[in-house]
Amino acid sequence: MTELSCNDFLGGKVRVWQPVNGYRAGLDPVLLAASVQAKPGQSALELGCGVGVASLCLAWRVPGVAVTGLELQPEYADLARRNAVENGADFTVHTGDLRALPEAVRQRQFDHVLANPPYFLRDAGTGAADPGRDLALGGDTPLATWVEVAAKRCAPRGTVTFIQRVERVPELLSAMYTRLGSIELLPLIPREGRPPQLVLIRGRKNGRAPFRMLPGLLVHPGENHRDGGEDYTPELRAVQRDGAALPF
């Protein structure tokens, strides 16, 4: 990882260093952060935090939330620490594998746990040329393990939130039902008339409410890309530019 770029999120309210040729964060971690209903004084843990975009967006939106990140790849963890310092965020980053948590993480519980697990199975399709990007997009840790670790680290009545591709929803739901309740699923509709590709899904530790499928959230207006300007619906523009919370 030699060449870096500094990119704006939340309309420049959060500025993040990330690799030019490795895994680069886009809208997904911003949406993940916006969906976490944290309050000042609470704590949050992001599993697989990368360079820290979701954690930093959450820390900016909810001042007073103490955020902890766990990242497997040392180079990305180092960038997350740099980004935390330069953004003045209450964001502590640990380097380690979620299958063997660092002691500082394993001994704690958090009000909220969030994660953007790899979207693809390692043995499905062609891997990315950059090793960091390949691991971020196609890790070999089962989704069930992500759910197990997230649920254990979540405090009673706390929330666990994931963003994931639609085709992996059955796998994710199956794992969540063994450890969490009050599960809610929010489809993200890319454009009018198109099926969702991603979903936000949240469960509550010790929750007892029935499963809820929420109305889909439209990301881009119209059926085709508009020339010029930002191509987001007003709700998504408020999230992407202003750091607003998602109606989840």
Automatic annotation (TrEMBL):
GO molecular function, one term: nucleic acid binding
Gene3D superfamilies: Vaccinia Virus protein VP39
Domain Methyltransferase small intervals: 31-119
GO biological process: methylation
Keyword Methyltransferase: yes
Organism: Thalassobius vesicularis
Superkingdom of origin: Bacteria
PANTHER family with a match to the protein in the record: TRNA1(VAL) (ADENINE(37)-N6)-METHYLTRANSFERASE
Key words of the record: Methyltransferase, S-adenosyl-L-methionine, Transferase
PROSITE patterns: N6_MTASE
Protein name: Methyltransferase domain-containing protein
